[in-house]
Amino acid sequence: MESRAADDIWIIKFYAPWCSLCKQLDPVWRQIGSELKSLGSPVSVGKSDATASTGLAKEFRVRGYPAILMLKKGVKYNYSGPRTKDGIMDFVNRVAGPLVRHLSSVQLFQHAMSRHDVMLVYVGATSQLKGNYTSVAEELIVHTYFFSATRDVLPKAVSLPSLPAVLVFKDGTYFTYNEERDGDLKLWINRERFPNYFRIDSYTLYAMGESGKLVVLALVDKNTCKEGLRYKSLVEKVAADYREIYRNFYFGFMEEHDYISGLVMGEVIVPSLIVVNLSIDGYFLPQGDVETERHLLDFLKGVLDGSIQCLGGNGIIQRIKRFVYDTKATLTLVSSQAPLLGCFLVSFPLAIFAILCYLCCKARPTMSNDDDDDGVALLAPSLHHRNKPPQKKYD
């Protein structure tokens, strides 16, 4: 940190020696370092033991392990995606490059379209809207790519009522930002930066909480059975056919259920359907079997009109329950992977509690004895006075 140049770009992994997930990431981290070096990338790759370099970890606000952060021109970017080589490399290429990438030809535009499921594009000359767009890009570059182009580069089917404009291309179509209708630009981009239907993992689902939309999920196994395939195709069909009606919904399927298990605080049934409201940590479950498209549409209608109760939430009681559940799940995981550490984490607070109880119990008789002594001391003069023989009077 003291010797780096102002233009240096670093991606750093913060780890703890006892963290099993950090150890699993080690070979991936070495591959990333080797590949970036062979490509001549300006990004330097490093790692830091957060338990030893506590000052550096505090400066980067490391709260969990492994933490992956990027430092570019004094700005720190936190990576919250899957701990895979492809995911991290995409993050590096996105953040290390320009905030807004200019597409100067039809060929470049088509190439970008083929690589990205969602494309945000600014069209027009310099304007206040472009300034806002660039400011949003600086904050949200960790999540998605930002592009700019001239009108003649766009497909001829794209109709723009006026310039400048911001568009999002996804799901085989496009939408144009309208400030009066869509409100704040950043909030609109957060809502629209995901495909309408796609495979969702726990990292993506967590990030979707900022969109403010409900998420319809088909929970399936990795080796999807016939029933799971039926749920997936049902959700995908409704997502495509009723996109305009359910603009406040995202649709997808999940093959990993740890996040949902934590949300409902229990084991989930697979395959099944669930609608989650990530802004309040709530969820909705169908009241019966969902076998047809009409059943799914009735379920979504019940979610919107309030006839189906929202479970969970982020109230105080729910937060306490979820904290207890997460603590138990963490201790179970740690105990299975590091038994000695798990025993210490369980026994240490119990030992402290036992010591406090012992001290309290020991203090009680001492206080009682003191009180008795004080009482005797107060009574003794009175008894002494009462038993004292009367003095005789003499002339």
Strands of the biggest beta sheet: in what spatial order? 10-12-11-13-14-15
Q: How many strand units?
A: 15
**Which class best fits the helix and strand makeup?**
alpha/beta
Percent of residues in helices: 40-55%
CATH topology of the largest domain: Glutaredoxin
Q: How would the global form be characterised?
A: globular
Count of all domains: 4
Which CATH class of the largest domain is shown?
Alpha Beta
Keywords: Membrane, Transmembrane, Transmembrane helix
EC number: 5.3.4.1
Enzyme class: isomerase
InterPro entries: PDI_TMX3, Thioredoxin-like_sf, Thioredoxin_domain
Please supply descriptive tags for the structure shown above:
47% helix, disordered C terminus, Glutaredoxin, 4 domains, 13 helices, 395 residues, alpha/beta
Characterization of the model:
This protein is an alpha/beta fold and 395 residues long. The chain folds into four domains: 9-95, Glutaredoxin (3-Layer(aba) Sandwich), CATH 3.40.30; 101-192, 3-Layer(aba) Sandwich (Glutaredoxin), CATH 3.40.30.10; 197-314, 3-Layer(aba) Sandwich (Glutaredoxin), CATH 3.40.30.10; 318-351, no CATH class. It is 47% helix and 19% strand. It has 13 helices and 15 strands. The protein has helices at residues 20-38, 54-59, 85-96, 106-115, 128-140, 179-182, 185-192, 202-207, 226-241, 258-264, 293-305, 316-337, 339-387, and strands spanning 9-15, 43-49, 67-72, 75-79, 101-103, 118-123, 146-149, 165-170, 173-176, 197-199, 214-219, 249-254, 272-277, 282-284, 311-312. Strands 10-12-11-13-14-15 form a six-stranded mixed β-sheet, covered by helices on one side. The protein has a five-stranded mixed β-sheet with strand order 5-7-6-8-9, with helices on both faces. β1 (9-15), α1 and β2 form a beta-alpha-beta unit. α12 packs across α13 (339-387). The longest helix has 49 residues, at 339-387.
